[in-house]
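Assess this one:

_____
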Amino acid sequence: MEEEERAARFRSLKLRERWTVARGALRCILAQYARCKPDVLVFRAGPHGKPALAWPVEDIHFNLSHTAGLALVAVAGNGRVGVDAEIVRPEIEVADLSRRFFAPAEAAEILALSADVRLAAFFTCWTRKEAFVKALGGGLSVPLDRFQVSIRSEQPARLLWLDGGESDQWSFLDVSEPGVAAALVVEGPAPVLRRMNFVPPS
């Protein structure tokens, strides 16, 4: 089974177990929308590896992100969707990573901030950009410096500029928690957000 083979690639038992639990939760959640049993769902990979449902339905858009012991699953009825979450880690080289990966305006804005808010702004920017890339389904083929997002958690989450594209066709939502930066991106107008905790079936 493809999922078992992928789980076996993790060198750490803890990472393997976390991936397996997150994937199992994803199956249970999607099965509710597809009105079927979790084990009959068939997935397919897009051109750049983004998973999608192939059977018994194909019109349920979803995305999964996990970091440490947290997993987020986003499901959208219409349009592409991406979600990303990261534990805020103080050891990150904010200046170097911002200059290497972000759009120049984003990096300049982050580095102009005071030290007490710079780290949060970096992770806010990172998760918004990663969620957008995941929504596009382009993987590493989408350079992070070819579009610009808002970077402050107290500002509305949005796409400010997209090289060669329409920025107003995407909606961004901040779904962060204390110690965790997280962002949700959907194609189309801002959705009605329903946030639920997953309870494993007995």
User: Anything to note?
Assistant: Residues 13-34 form the longest helix (22 residues). The mean pLDDT is 90. DSSP finds five helices and nine strands in the chain.
